[in-house]
Amino acid sequence: MLERLIDHPGRTLSEPAVMNHPLAEQHATYITSSIEESDDVATLRKEPKWSFRILEVGHWPMVAAPGRLVALLDEVTPSRQTNV
User: What is the domain partition of the chain in residue ranges?
Assistant: First the structure.
């Protein structure tokens, strides 16, 4: 497993994301592994376009519970239609 893991991309810490609309106006599902949350996240809980899910499996759900993570992502991701 360690051979396939990569370091955290450093630029995500130093270069802010640029958005066309404020974060609160975005439709989103926030998935966390803890019931503890920052003040920013608590503020987003009040936004009607945001939903919140807890997957209690620790910091690395992709390692600890990949099946449960995939099922949750599949559940909260809008279906896409493709032209075949």
Answer: 22-76
